[in-house]
Each structure stands twice: as structure tokens, then as C-alpha cells.
Amino acid sequence: MGLRVVAITEQVPAPDLTAKPVPLRTLLSYATGTGAASLTLGGIGNFGMLYYTQIIGLSAKLVGIVFCISMIWSALIGPVMGHVIDNMRSRFGRYHPSMLLGGLLLGISFYFVWDVPELRANHVLVFLYLVAINLILTTAAAMFGVPYGALGFKMCASYEERSRLQGIGLFFSQFVNFFGGALAWVLFFPDRNYPDGTRVDGSHIAHNYVHMSVVLTASALIFVLICVWATKSYAIDNRSERATRLRLSTLIPDVLSLVSDRYARYVYCFFGILSVGTMIVGQVEMFTYGDFMRLTHVHKAVAEGMGMIASAAGGLLQTLLVIRYDKKQAGYIGVGIGVFGGFMLLILFIGGVLRPEQTWTIPNVMPLIGGGVVPIAALIFSLFLALWWGGMGVVGPLAMSMMADISEINYRRSGLLKDAGYASAFSFVSTIIVSVGTFISGWALDSMGYVSGAVTQSLEVSRNMAILTFISGPVSALLALPFLWKYPIDRAFMTRLSEDDGHRQGRHSSNRQRASHDSAGGTVHSEVGAQSACETGRRLASVHRRSGMPTAKQVAEHVNGQIKQKHF
């Protein structure tokens, strides 16, 4: 059976490396979409493992399997969505219908992640429910995220603008996540103190998660509606575009061609390996807060908030670094910052320089603040953990902007528009590898002897969790660094590509004038005929990418047909 889809030829100007900057207001409007993804996917990343182990009572290994299954499904559904989006036509263009439907489903399914039916006595049914609802959520995330990412490719065509867009997106994401993640410890998970002096960690109180889910769901839905409405100028009716019959059998080769792209492989490996460590740090640090560092809910909010602010600052910093140096150099700096922060935590807290609950009493001779107690260990912990996340804030937007460059290179050389395809291929590869990190997190916690539902863990388990938090990120970053070093694309590469296109346009114009002159004289030179027909078509497709011109094959067939008519 074949699938009826549409061949895409966008009706917008060809990308220009010297294009004027996109207005900041437009970029911020687009960035609201990251708020929806940050609140939902970030909320699960921040508190999902805690909720399923401490409240639901599943083992960390089972929770790791739940997340691993959902991420593998996300990796598989991403390329399918990319293929569909690249071949969609509607009154509102190819991006916005899926963004709206997927965004609404994303917000609604997020709520039911936390509203688990009364099945807790049967862990098998709970496990199946969690798998099902997470599969629905990841499908919705792909329906929203793939066209959203492709829309960003479309909005910014220049080398630096892509980094600027991704940096602003990350900044807004972390700004929103500061309220939904860092301040969540104060807003939704305050500790409960009893008259006898005992303190119960807020993450062990079930109804706190319900309150959080209601607020974050409503906020995510609002961000989806704002994003779709604010970017409606890019929702261009494309129903008049030609329809081509494609078969489902074309999907796999198309995905494989994107995954095997020789430039993209460097980005996949670099960001994928780095994501394994990032996922482990993000999952296990939540346990390290309470079980190793013994942080109060206020200290947790400070630690989480500093990490998010640092990540947002890193996203803005990478824009400046790309302008001042280049993308590879910016990546080196980001990795260096993150590795330094992680190793300093290992040296200070595992090396015995600081105790987790160590404080400093301000001397009484100091006016006003004398005698005050400063949680010095908590502050230093928060500072160096923030350095790790700040470094990753530099690297994350770079990877996505690199994929936009690669998509542009593919288009200029082939004449084929695959923005959504490259966005989904990036998601496919990184999600597959991130699922490995999620599984490792659950497996490691279980192997350490972590007891689900227990109020406290043993000192040995707590120490091992801290070691995993401190070392997994820097090690993965160092393993990923060689792939960034081998990445061949830089500003000079993209400039040469643009100049080559300009030269081809000049030669094409000259050849077209010559062919017109010869045709008027009743002759058609052979070198403008069979030899140049295919090249002329290829140049037309490359130069007039989004002008609605015919494809290279169609032009070649048309010119060859004219030649045959004249000669035979």
C-alpha cells in the first residue's frame, strides 16, 4: 500500500548567510514554545524518578525501564513525524496544525502522569499504566517538538542567527524552568516540620505532586497557545503545492540518509554521548540533594535555581562566543566549564575537604550579621553544580544550531528541503542515547542498594549516589570532545558555500542567455543540451530552492525533451 503525501517546495526566499537579524520580539514569541516543553518534559525529568520511587513505590530499576521505553518510542516516532511534517500541506502550513494539536495533548497527558489510579497495590498494573501514559506524552511531544524545531530552522537562515535563536530559546526555557523546577521546592514541596522536631522532606508527601501537576499543566497549555498564535505569520497556506505519491518504503531510506549524513554524525556522537552524562546527573542529583547533602527545601531551591540560571546564562554566552570565535571553540569552552565544575564537586565533597552539612558561623565582632550561620557546604555545592549546568547551557544550543547548518548544506547541494527531517533525526539519535542514560540511572540506583519509599538511605548508598552525580557528567563530556574536534563545519566553510552558490548563479544566468540565443538561431549546441540539461536543473533547484521552481529531474527531462524534438 502507498501513502498519499505531498512533495514540498516552500514559497519563501532562499536562505542568506548575510540575512538581517530576526527581531528580538519574534524570537521571544517563538521561544514561548520551549516553555511548554520545559515545564512538561523538564517536570518529569526533575521529579518523575522521585515520585515513582518514593510515592508510588516502584523500584528504581523499573522506573528506569519506564523512561527507557518511552524514550525509545520517542526516538522512533520522531523521524516519522519529521517525514510527515516535511510532506504536509494545509491551510495553515506544515508546522502549526501539528504544533497546536501536539501541544494541547502534551499538556493534558502531563497531568495524568501524576494522577495515577488507585492501583498501587499491584505494581504490574502501575508499571503498565505508567508505560502507556508516558508513550502518549512522548508522542505528543514529538507532534509539537518536531515542527517547532523545524519552524526555528525556517525563521533564522544565517550562521550566527541560528545560534542566537537557540540561545534565546534555552534562556527562556531555563527562565520558565526556574519557576517550575527550582522554585517548585518552595512552592510545591515545602518540608513539613512536626512539634517533636522531626522534619519530613516535601518530596515524600504525595499531594504535593498533584498540586504541581495542575499548575504546570495549565501553564504549559497557555505557552502552547501563545507560541502558535505569536508565530501565525509563518503559517502559510501551502495547499497549492504539487502532490506526489510517495510510499511508506521511502521513509526508512530517508531516515537512514539523515542519520548517516557524514557531517551530522559528528554532532550526533558529540551531543549524544554528552547527553548520557547529562541525563544521569539530572536524575541522580535530585537524590543527592536530600540523601547526601541533606539540603532543606530552601537550599534545594537555591541549588536548582542556580543551575537553571547558569544554564540560561550559558545559552546567551554561547551566542557571544560564536560571534567572537566560532561554534567549535564555543563548544570547547562550554565543555571546559562543565568538566571543571563536576570535578571540583568530586574533590571537595568526596575528597573530604568539605562535609555535606558543614556551616560557617559569622564572628560576633561583625555588626548586624555576627553570630549568623552560613550553610557554606550547600552554597559551594550549588556554585560548582551550577558551573556544570552553565557549561551544558553553552553546548546544548550549539548542537541544534549545528544541525540547522547541516540542513542548509544538504539543501544547497541537493535542492531538497529537509528541515523537519534533520530536526527529527537529531531527536532520534540523541533520544536513543539519552534512554541509555536513563536506564543507567535506574540500574545504578538499584545496584547501589537504594530503597524505594524509605525516608532515608544508608551513608554508603548516599555517598555512591553523590559520586555518580559528580563524575558521570565530566567523564561523558571528555569522551564526547573528540567528535567536536573532528567536526569540519565552521564560519569559513559556510561562507565558501554561499560564495560557490553565487558563482553557480552567475554561470547559470550566462548559460541560459546562450541557450536562448542559440534557440532563436535555430540551433541548439550539444554542450548546452544533453551535457548541461541535468546541471541546469540542479542549479535551478539549488538557487531557487523556495521559489516554486521545478525540481532538477523535471527540468532535465523538459530540456532533453526539447532537444529530441529539435533533432528528431
Protein model, in words:
By secondary structure, this protein is mainly alpha-helical. It folds into 2 domains: 4-8 and 19-489, MFS general substrate transporter like domains (Growth Hormone, Chain: A, Up-down Bundle); 495-567. It has helices at residues 24-55, 60-86, 96-114, 123-155, 159-182, 184-187, 206-230, 251-259, 264-291, 297-324, 327-350, 376-414, 419-448, 459-486, 491-520, 530-543, 552-567, and strands at 2-6, 192-193, 199-200, 243-247, 360-361, 373-374. The strands form 3 sheets. It has a two-stranded antiparallel ribbon. Strands 2-3 form a two-stranded antiparallel sheet. A hairpin with a 5-residue loop joins strand 2 (192-193) and strand 3. Helix 1 runs antiparallel to helix 7. The chain is globular, with a radius of gyration of 27 Å.
Blueprint of the fold:
Elements: E1 2-6, H1 24-55, H2 60-86, H3 96-114, H4 123-155, H5 159-182, H6 184-187, E2 192-193, E3 199-200, H7 206-230, E4 243-247, H8 251-259, H9 264-291, H10 297-324, H11 327-350, E5 360-361, E6 373-374, H12 376-414, H13 419-448, H14 459-486, H15 491-520, H16 530-543, H17 552-567
Major sheet attributes: 2 strands, antiparallel
Termini separation comes to 40 Å
User: If classified by CATH, what would the architecture of the largest domain be?
Assistant: Up-down Bundle
**Low-confidence spans: pLDDT under 50, at least 5 residues?**
1-18, 519-568
SSE ordering = EHHHHHHEEHEHHHHEEHHHHHH
Rg over CA atoms, rounded to whole Å, is 27 Å
User: In the CATH hierarchy, what is the superfamily of the largest domain?
Assistant: MFS general substrate transporter like domains
In CATH terms, what is the fold-level topology of the largest domain?
Answer: Growth Hormone, Chain: A
Mean pLDDT: 77
What does the overall shape look like? Answer: globular
Give the count of structural domains.
2
Percentage beta strand: under 5%
* Category by helix and strand content: mainly alpha
Which CATH first-tier class of the largest domain would you pick?
A: Mainly Alpha
Counted by DSSP, the helix tally is 17
Helix content: over 70%
Strand order of the largest sheet: 1-4
Q: Could you give the count of β-strands?
A: 6
